[in-house]
Amino acid sequence: MNIWVLDSESGTKLLYKSFLKTDADEDIVSGFLTAFHHFSMIEFQESLDSIEMGGLRWVYILEDNYKLIFVAADTRDTKTELILARLNVIKNAFIKQFNSVWEKRGHNWDGDINIFLPFLNEIEDYYDQWEEVESLAKTADFFDILGIFQKILIMLRNVIDNKMYSKSRNSILNKIEELYNTFITPKDIKSSDELKNITFSKESWFNLIDINLIKSDKDLVIKSLESIISGIVNILKQIKGKNACFKYFSEEKVYAYIFNNLKLLKDLKLDLFLLENFLLL
């Protein structure tokens, strides 16, 4: 996220803080942003709240009473509402802190702009708080995802234990053990240490509880668990056939679990994966 505080009349940059690496010159961008604002006011009789430009999402807040434009730019995958909410916090804090300067200078910002520099520390404090909250949210999502995978794996084990005769059960468990040994090789563990925390044995089944939520490569762990579940479903399908698998999954309430939690699964981007695998598409 990059942030500008601009004098809306003169285009003077009062403050700029960058948390994103860009090649753009901050002063040139400041002038462009002010000019773009004036253009939108003349052509459209209103200020444009947000645009996408240069691979970024740009959000504006015009504060007419103080002749200020607050601008934030962030990546396109960041929601406009989130950028706007954060920019609004910065706007309110800036006005509260420098209202006395505005009054003292006769309702303009002319003069030494270095007086605003200490506010950069406050912006950094806000940003650190937002990063911490975002990190906690991602960790919470990862925790939910692991819980879903563990639940699905338990259901699959119940299918094997409760629906199979001993010959089929042993054959399936042997193939799953082969799948695991092929998947978790010494080379894999060496290149990605967290994979060793996905453990398996025919007696105790799969265990995910030792996965480190903070230090693990989330995408790699998810991709790995998806591969394992897809592999198990394919083994069941090969040995017992599609029709029998439909019956087993239904009796074990796999479908009920997926549909009852569809909103959460969609939010966590697991819905299509589970539907494609368990509907045997």
Structural features, described:
The protein has 281 residues and is of the alpha+beta class. The chain has two domains: 2-117, Beta-Lactamase; 138-278, no CATH class. Helix content is 59%, strand content 14%. It has ten helices and seven strands. It has helices spanning 26-44, 80-104, 119-163, 166-183, 186-191, 218-240, 242-251, 254-260, 262-267, 271-278, and strands at residues 2-7, 13-18, 50-53, 56-63, 68-75, 199-201, 205-207. The strands form two sheets. It has a five-stranded antiparallel sheet, sandwiched between helices. Strands 6-7 form a two-stranded antiparallel ribbon. It starts with a strand and ends with a helix. Residues 42-47 have low confidence and may be disordered.
What's the gist of this structure?
By secondary structure, the protein is an alpha+beta fold.
Q: What's the end-to-end separation, in Å?
A: 41 Å
- Helicity level, as a percent range? 55-70%
Low-confidence stretches: 42-47
Shape, per Cα inertia axes:
elongated
Strand order of the largest sheet: 2-1-5-4-3
Radius of gyration over all CA atoms, rounded: 28 Å
**SS elements, strand count:** 7
List keywords for this structure.
2 domains, five-stranded antiparallel sheet, alpha+beta, two-stranded antiparallel ribbon, 59% helix, elongated, 281 residues, 7 strands, Beta-Lactamase
Topology:
Layout: E1 2-7, E2 13-18, H1 26-44, E3 50-53, E4 56-63, E5 68-75, H2 80-104, H3 119-163, H4 166-183, H5 186-191, E6 199-201, E7 205-207, H6 218-240, H7 242-251, H8 254-260, H9 262-267, H10 271-278
Antiparallel strand pairs: 1-2, 1-5, 3-4, 4-5, 6-7
Helix pairs in contact: 3-6, 4-6, 6-7
